[in-house]
Amino acid sequence: MTKNDDSGRDLRYGLEEAVDGELPREMVERMRRHTDDCPECAHEWELVQRVKELVRRSCADRAPSDLRERIAVQCRTVSVTTTSTTTSADGTVRYSRTTTTRRTFPGA
């Protein structure tokens, strides 16, 4: 919204709040009346509504249950890797062994 209201304020700055219902009803009604006469602002109002609806729907989607379970298991799993080496007197590695231990704790 680019048109100023009676007090000279740019109505665009309250657009998202108006769409979210966070402004006084009188102000929202004044903005809506303006959009009745201004195709540019009506288009902007519609775009904000569409974007907010898309975000709302996207945030409401849940991950599939198998994915949620795999993530939960990963969060409860601890891996510890240890390496032991045996060296000769001159510092040459004669033997090296790496062991990884994984433990998954039960869910809460």
Automatic annotation (TrEMBL):
Residues 17-42 form the Putative zinc-finger domain. It comes from the Bacteria. Residues 81-108 are annotated as: Disordered. Residues 97-108 have a biased composition (Low complexity). This is Mycothiol system anti-sigma-R factor. It comes from Brachybacterium aquaticum.
